[in-house]
Design a protein that fits this description.
Elements: E1 2-3, H1 11-18, H2 24-29, E2 34-39, E3 44-46, E4 55-60, E5 63-68, E6 74-80, E7 85-86, H3 89-94, E8 101-104, E9 108-113, H4 115-124, H5 126-152, H6 155-165, H7 175-182, H8 186-204
Antiparallel strand pairs: 1-2, 2-9, 3-8, 4-7, 4-9, 5-6, 5-8
């Protein structure tokens, strides 16, 4: 359901005005390129095979992106809690069908952001252009770090890296989803958690 949202009270406004320097006038000029929408738990914002036409800023709630293997198993690529933005950039840029799904795993309020928002904001504001460039570079760094964690880290190191990346999600995300993100079984995740608990108790002695 599309919402008539109070923009100036929104996290979306506060995030891009505070971190990227967009003014109220900028938002007014760009108002046709974004909208707020309430989505229920389990709602798909993007499905594999569709061309992505929006990025999704999480005003409140929680999203995930994932792929499916030939047996229907989920492989979670990313979580997106409040103040995160998630999309399939390759699908948007190349206008090609996505290989991924983006889905709400909590009741959420999402800002649907068209590519034109970023393009026009970058032309209107040098500060925003710098912010966007830094964000893109940071995203590349995060993706490289994620690939390295899957290739080179053991299960415990991956879990510690997850906690660093998503410190508020341990009580919001089912264990099987965390295991899927880490590329390990739920049983391995349980063992890692027990080991960390034991390590913590021994450290306090």
């Amino acid at each position: 359901m599309t919402l008539d949202y109070n923009l100036k009270d929104s996290n979306f406004y506060k995030y891009y005005s505070g971190k990227a320097g967009l003014s109220e006038a900028h938002f007014e000029q760009l108002s046709s390129y974004f909208f707020f929408k309430e989505v229920a738990h389990g709602t798909f914002l993007l499905r594999a095979g569709e061309v992505s036409h929006h990025a999704f800023f999480v005003e409140s709630g929680l999203l995930q992106s994932f792929s499916l293997d030939e047996k229907g198993g989920e492989h979670i690529l990313q979580f997106a809690p409040e103040n995160w933005i998630i999309s399939d950039r390759a699908s948007q840029y190349f206008n090609k069908p996505s290989d991924y799904y983006i889905k709400a795993i909590e009741h959420s309020i999402i800002v649907f952001v068209q590519p034109e928002f970023m393009e026009k904001a970058s032309r209107e504001s040098k500060e925003f252009a710098c912010f966007l460039e830094n964000s893109l570079q940071r995203n590349i760094y995060i993706q490289q770090k994620r690939i390295n964690s899957l290739l080179a880290m053991n299960a415990k190191e991956r879990y510690l890296s997850f906690m660093e990346m998503y410190p508020g999600l341990l009580l919001r995300v089912p264990q099987w989803m965390i295991a899927s993100y880490l590329g390990i079984t739920p049983e391995s995740l349980s063992r890692v958690r027990r080991e960390l608990l034991t390590d913590s108790k021994e450290a306090k002695r």
